[in-house]
């Protein structure tokens, strides 16, 4: 048995190292399905999964959708802007609708922190957080860890550097929880305005000096910089941000020869990283996309047992 | 728990040799033959058959390992999901004669799942079934083509094929729960 | 109304009373206060083992009327307050229309009288709470306001605030400030710190309160006005108040029960019933509030009773409105957290919840003490009575309490307001 008994995956913060290991191992076994001529298994046949995307997302939504299809689930796509949920339909009504439609699992992306947590509390069915506010993006962290483990053979003892807007990054936050649990050391680098307060108390190292930080990193995970942040005075200009924090071939000369370059996408070429790095030999950005599929299949598979766990309890 | 040994190490070895011979007798054209073992017991046995056939003929026939978890018909009833083993079928199954190998044949549900899984990899010419132990109680119309030993059992009994690779011993035992409440 | 409350332990810090006495309320007025009162045909309430204290006064409530009657009305708010042992309250002016016109003041006071309940409304500092032009404070005072405040909208324009303090002090109006630099608070929904970093919620720093308190104190120094800092919540702001008091400025402040009872850790489940403004602060800040109550730098306990509908509080934490109920639980929370944990004596709690609020507002003699000849405004409490906060029992129209399910020790058993007796629990 996998030992997985959780109904929901709302945050890496809740998971143990063993549970993270279970997801990664399961994903490893599922990878092969995507290489078959018939890329589909009947595992979730007859199950309905609702993808609730209250915030625009292409990559994550497509990845979940394909993972669901590969497992033969039926899919219900519900998209909407957060503003309409705030003013019109309440989260509560969404919940009621989902229950009425007899959905078995919900994948939710929401611009507000905690929305998946509230949903998970209110629903009997499994909830997967596909990104909430500035809080967590658990499947992204899992696929990042998976990719690192695939390429480096381990997570323990590795130094993983995150560069960019840590403050607003759910990718960074989920990775911090996960990587520290798996025994990797995490270094965060970005302008001081984009570093969360007291983050070092979570067991990570914080620096504003990129040139120093890249030196002994085994992995550099770049975070997408949002151009509108300059309007809120987080940094003076995109130009200056690129001068100080862009990963390009020049700065990579200081890095280890086998460093991995990761990015959750979509990439702002010429801002957080240069094109030659994005397409270069260190880049595993496309592996991340491929691995995302196996990770999401693994998560859906593991959670799909939760319903029977719940009913057994009753 | 009462344990009865039905086959000892020597008998296990003999059975493997016999089945391997039977497979070869029925399929002289080894080029079109492939073995697929069902994880975990069937996979180990498949490796033994492969080795035995290689010893006999000097030819190494392709071997695939199959995990049928994703094809099980009882997933929604089992609670915490089972671990998924890796499926490794590195050859094209289309046009091949597949010998599907499992350790114990019981209800036939595992074999049903395995047939579905193999078909997702292509269109074999034919699939034959080799099992080490047939203990009866079929729930599906499935019949083995090669059998190590028929062991009539009661439903509450458990048949375990122990193999050197995982259990440090080759033997087949039948276990009976003496007192169900204990 | 006539009633004799017998054998109650009467505790009236102002008059230094602490004795088991009978209280005779005759036609709503306190006729007698002594041992063994005998009177014919007067109903008797045997208050053995209970304490009779001056009615509680809440310096900070939102009763939402006019404009937001779906959340609370003056009637439901007053009933909730009475249930919490409160006989008088200062309503904040963030209604719709805001309390910047005498007609709004008239309406509030009239509706309160019907209950009967005492509301001492706060009018706005600026017209429409827009921070541009001063409100017509002379007219508002004639209509019945006792204080001015722009409530949640801190007067960011320092010149306007200076003028407001000068003008209000001319009228001897208390100026209440919700001190917060909103620009600095940005889009924060909780306090900035380790917990916000862990929870991934947008946060606002203590400094947004600290800088605003500091400015307002300096303007109070400049103008000599009476400045009251609403719901103080940071240790930094409290230090500014301490300094101002030591320098003899007319600065007072209040703290809410949730700011001395809870800290930011309460937000772990993203429950919107823990979203308020100021936000729940760190444990260090919470301890500083307790310390401030103890050393007297915090004058009063006020609830910032802020009802919101369940629909509103069901929104995601980023979108749900700030605020929690307070009046029905404030006495219980204060007793549980301060009296039973031996931070304050019972007299000191009465001081913070009745005596001092009456002084800050400069209320008439019938408030903050128990005196023969005055209209009866008293509260009967059971200091050791344990109870669990149950929203189904709230008199308030809303249910957004941050103490739901909590066991409290100390309960209001009956309230006499404006001479009318409200009995909440069975009294043997």
From TrEMBL, chain A:
<feature type="binding site">
    <location>
        <position position="59"/>
    </location>
    <ligand>
        <name>carbamoyl phosphate</name>
    </ligand>
</feature>
<dbReference type="GO" id="GO:0006207">
    <property type="term" value="P:'de novo' pyrimidine nucleobase biosynthetic process"/>
</dbReference>
<dbReference type="GO" id="GO:0016597">
    <property type="term" value="F:amino acid binding"/>
</dbReference>
<dbReference type="Pfam" id="PF02729">
    <property type="entry name" value="OTCace_N"/>
</dbReference>
<comment type="subunit">
    <text>Heterododecamer (2C3:3R2) of six catalytic PyrB chains organized as two trimers (C3), and six regulatory PyrI chains organized as three dimers (R2).</text>
</comment>
<feature type="binding site">
    <location>
        <position position="224"/>
    </location>
    <ligand>
        <name>L-aspartate</name>
    </ligand>
</feature>
<protein>
    <recommendedName>
        <fullName>Aspartate carbamoyltransferase</fullName>
        <ecNumber>2.1.3.2</ecNumber>
    </recommendedName>
</protein>
<dbReference type="InterPro" id="IPR002082">
    <property type="entry name" value="Asp_carbamoyltransf"/>
</dbReference>
<dbReference type="InterPro" id="IPR036901">
    <property type="entry name" value="Asp/Orn_carbamoylTrfase_sf"/>
</dbReference>
<dbReference type="InterPro" id="IPR006130">
    <property type="entry name" value="Asp/Orn_carbamoylTrfase"/>
</dbReference>
<comment type="pathway">
    <text>Pyrimidine metabolism; UMP biosynthesis via de novo pathway; (S)-dihydroorotate from bicarbonate: step 2/3.</text>
</comment>
<feature type="binding site">
    <location>
        <position position="109"/>
    </location>
    <ligand>
        <name>carbamoyl phosphate</name>
    </ligand>
</feature>
<feature type="binding site">
    <location>
        <position position="266"/>
    </location>
    <ligand>
        <name>carbamoyl phosphate</name>
    </ligand>
</feature>
<comment type="function">
    <text>Catalyzes the condensation of carbamoyl phosphate and aspartate to form carbamoyl aspartate and inorganic phosphate, the committed step in the de novo pyrimidine nucleotide biosynthesis pathway.</text>
</comment>
<feature type="domain" description="Aspartate/ornithine carbamoyltransferase carbamoyl-P binding">
    <location>
        <begin position="7"/>
        <end position="150"/>
    </location>
</feature>
Automatic annotation (TrEMBL), chain B:
<comment type="function">
    <text>Regulates the transcription of the pyrimidine nucleotide (pyr) operon in response to exogenous pyrimidines.</text>
</comment>
<keyword id="KW-0808">Transferase</keyword>
<dbReference type="InterPro" id="IPR023050">
    <property type="entry name" value="PyrR"/>
</dbReference>
<comment type="similarity">
    <text>Belongs to the purine/pyrimidine phosphoribosyltransferase family. PyrR subfamily.</text>
</comment>
<dbReference type="InterPro" id="IPR050137">
    <property type="entry name" value="PyrR_bifunctional"/>
</dbReference>
<dbReference type="InterPro" id="IPR029057">
    <property type="entry name" value="PRTase-like"/>
</dbReference>
<dbReference type="InterPro" id="IPR000836">
    <property type="entry name" value="PRTase_dom"/>
</dbReference>
<comment type="function">
    <text>Also displays a weak uracil phosphoribosyltransferase activity which is not physiologically significant.</text>
</comment>
<protein>
    <recommendedName>
        <fullName>Bifunctional protein PyrR</fullName>
        <ecNumber>2.4.2.9</ecNumber>
    </recommendedName>
</protein>
<keyword id="KW-0328">Glycosyltransferase</keyword>
<feature type="short sequence motif" description="PRPP-binding">
    <location>
        <begin position="98"/>
        <end position="110"/>
    </location>
</feature>
<dbReference type="GO" id="GO:0006355">
    <property type="term" value="P:regulation of DNA-templated transcription"/>
</dbReference>
<feature type="domain" description="Phosphoribosyltransferase">
    <location>
        <begin position="4"/>
        <end position="165"/>
    </location>
</feature>
<dbReference type="Pfam" id="PF00156">
    <property type="entry name" value="Pribosyltran"/>
</dbReference>
<dbReference type="GO" id="GO:0004845">
    <property type="term" value="F:uracil phosphoribosyltransferase activity"/>
</dbReference>
From TrEMBL, chain C:
<comment type="similarity">
    <text>Belongs to the metallo-dependent hydrolases superfamily. DHOase family. Class I DHOase subfamily.</text>
</comment>
<keyword id="KW-0378">Hydrolase</keyword>
<dbReference type="GO" id="GO:0044205">
    <property type="term" value="P:'de novo' UMP biosynthetic process"/>
</dbReference>
<dbReference type="InterPro" id="IPR032466">
    <property type="entry name" value="Metal_Hydrolase"/>
</dbReference>
<feature type="domain" description="Dihydroorotase catalytic">
    <location>
        <begin position="52"/>
        <end position="235"/>
    </location>
</feature>
<feature type="binding site">
    <location>
        <position position="308"/>
    </location>
    <ligand>
        <name>substrate</name>
    </ligand>
</feature>
<dbReference type="GO" id="GO:0006145">
    <property type="term" value="P:purine nucleobase catabolic process"/>
</dbReference>
<keyword id="KW-0479">Metal-binding</keyword>
<feature type="binding site">
    <location>
        <position position="60"/>
    </location>
    <ligand>
        <name>Zn(2+) 1</name>
    </ligand>
</feature>
<feature type="binding site">
    <location>
        <position position="304"/>
    </location>
    <ligand>
        <name>Zn(2+) 1</name>
    </ligand>
</feature>
<keyword id="KW-0665">Pyrimidine biosynthesis</keyword>
<comment type="pathway">
    <text>Pyrimidine metabolism; UMP biosynthesis via de novo pathway; (S)-dihydroorotate from bicarbonate: step 3/3.</text>
</comment>
<dbReference type="GO" id="GO:0004038">
    <property type="term" value="F:allantoinase activity"/>
</dbReference>
<dbReference type="GO" id="GO:0005737">
    <property type="term" value="C:cytoplasm"/>
</dbReference>
<dbReference type="InterPro" id="IPR024403">
    <property type="entry name" value="DHOase_cat"/>
</dbReference>
């Amino acid at each position: 048995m996998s030992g997985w008994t959780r109904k929901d995956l709302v945050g890496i913060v809740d998971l143990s190292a063993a549970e993270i290991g279970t997801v990664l191992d399961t994903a490893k076994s599922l990878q092969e399905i995507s290489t078959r001529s018939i890329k589909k298994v009947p595992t979730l046949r007859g199950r309905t999964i609702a993808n609730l995307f209250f915030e625009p997302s292409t990559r994550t939504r497509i990845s979940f959708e394909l993972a669901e299809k590969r497992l033969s689930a039926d899919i219900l796509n519900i998209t909407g802007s957060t503003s309409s949920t705030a003013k019109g339909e309440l989260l509560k009504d969404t919940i009621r609708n989902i229950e009425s439609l007899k959905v078995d699992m919900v994948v939710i992306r929401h611009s507000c922190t905690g929305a998946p947590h509230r949903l998970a509390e209110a629903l009997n069915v499994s909830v997967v957080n596909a990104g909430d506010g500035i809080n967590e993006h658990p499947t992204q962290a899992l696929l990042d860890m998976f990719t690192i483990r695939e390429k480096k053979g381990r997570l323990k003892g590795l130094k993983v550097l995150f560069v960019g807007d840590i403050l607003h990054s759910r990718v960074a936050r989920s990775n911090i929880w996960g990587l520290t649990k798996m025994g990797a050391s995490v270094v965060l680098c970005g302008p001081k305005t984009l570093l969360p307060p007291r983050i070092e108390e979570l067991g990570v190292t914080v620096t504003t000096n990129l040139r120093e930080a890249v030196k002994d990193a085994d992995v550099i995970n770049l975070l997408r910089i949002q151009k509108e942040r300059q309007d809120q005075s987080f940094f003076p200009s995109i130009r200056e941000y690129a001068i100080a924090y862009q990963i390009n071939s020049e700065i990579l000369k200081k890095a280890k020869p086998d460093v991995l370059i990761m990015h959750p996408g979509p990439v702002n070429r010429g801002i957080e990283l240069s094109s030659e790095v994005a397409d270069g030999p260190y880049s595993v950005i496309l592996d991340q996309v491929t691995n995302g599929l196996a990770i999401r299949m693994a998560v859906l598979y593991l959670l799909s047992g939760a319903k029977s766990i719940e009913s057994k309890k009753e | 728990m009462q344990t009865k040994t039905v086959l000892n190490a020597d008998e296990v070895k003999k059975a493997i040799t016999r089945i391997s011979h039977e497979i070869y007798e029925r399929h002289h054209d080894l080029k079109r033959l492939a073995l697929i073992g069902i994880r975990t017991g069937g996979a180990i046995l498949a490796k033994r058959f492969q080795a035995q056939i290689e010893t006999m003929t000097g030819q190494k026939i392709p071997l695939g390992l199959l995990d049928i978890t994703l094809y099980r018909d009882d997933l929604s009833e089992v609670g915490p999901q089972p671990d998924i083993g890796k499926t490794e079928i590195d050859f094209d199954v289309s046009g091949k004669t597949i010998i599907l190998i499992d350790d114990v044949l019981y209800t036939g549900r595992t074999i049903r799942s395995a047939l579905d899984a193999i078909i997702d990899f292509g269109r074999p010419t034919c699939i034959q079934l080799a099992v080490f132990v047939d203990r009866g109680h079929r729930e599906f119309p499935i019949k083995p083509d090669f059998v190590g030993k028929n062991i009539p059992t009661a439903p509450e009994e458990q048949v375990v094929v122990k193999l050197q690779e995982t259990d440090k011993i080759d033997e087949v035992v039948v276990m009976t729960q003496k007192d169900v409440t204990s | 109304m006539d009633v004799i409350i017998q054998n109650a332990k009467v505790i009236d810090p102002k008059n230094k009373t602490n004795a088991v006495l009978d209280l005779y309320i005759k036609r709503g007025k306190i006729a007698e206060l002594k041992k063994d009162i005998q009177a014919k045909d007067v109903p008797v309430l045997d208050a053995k083992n209970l304490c009779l204290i001056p009615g509680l006064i809440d310096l900070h409530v939102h009763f939402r009327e006019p404009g937001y009657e779906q959340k609370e009305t003056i009637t439901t708010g007053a009933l909730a307050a009475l249930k919490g042992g409160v006989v008088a309250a200062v309503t904040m002016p963030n209604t719709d229309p805001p309390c910047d016109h005498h007609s709004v003041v008239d309406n509030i006071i009239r509706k309160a009288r019907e209950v009967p309940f005492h509301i001492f409304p706060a009018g706005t500092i600026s017209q429409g709470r827009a921070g541009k032009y001063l409100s017509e404070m002379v007219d508002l005072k004639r209509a019945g306001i006792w204080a001015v405040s722009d409530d949640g909208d801190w007067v960011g324009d320092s010149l306007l605030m200076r003028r407001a303090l000068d003008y209000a002090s001319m009228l001897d109006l208390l100026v209440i400030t919700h001190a917060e630099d909103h620009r600095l608070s940005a889009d924060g929904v909780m306090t900035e710190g380790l917990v916000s970093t862990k929870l991934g919620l947008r946060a606002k720093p203590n400094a947004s309160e600290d800088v605003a308190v500091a400015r307002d104190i300096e303007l109070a120094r400049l103008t000599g006005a009476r400045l009251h800092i609403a719901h103080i919540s940071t240790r930094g702001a409290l230090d500014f108040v301490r300094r101002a008091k030591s320098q003899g400025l007319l600065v007072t402040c209040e703290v809410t029960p949730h700011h001395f009872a809870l800290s930011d850790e309460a937000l772990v489940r993203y429950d919107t019933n823990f979203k308020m403004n100021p936000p729940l602060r760190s444990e260090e800040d919470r301890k500083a509030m307790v310390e401030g109550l103890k050393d007297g730098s915090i004058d009063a306990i006020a609830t910032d009773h802020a009802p919101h509908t369940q629909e509103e509080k069901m929104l995601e934490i980023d979108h749900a409105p700030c605020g929690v109920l307070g009046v029905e639980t404030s006495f219980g929370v204060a007793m549980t957290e301060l009296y039973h944990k031996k931070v304050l004596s019972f007299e000191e709690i009465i001081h913070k919840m009745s005596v001092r609020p009456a002084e800050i507002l400069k209320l008439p003699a019938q408030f903050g003490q128990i005196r023969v000849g005055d209209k009866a405004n008293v509260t009967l409490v059971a200091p050791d009575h344990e109870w669990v906060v149950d929203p189904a029992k709230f008199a308030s129209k809303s249910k957004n309490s941050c103490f739901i399910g909590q066991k409290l020790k100390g309960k209001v058993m009956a309230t006499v307001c404006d001479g009318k007796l409200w009995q909440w629990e069975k009294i043997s």
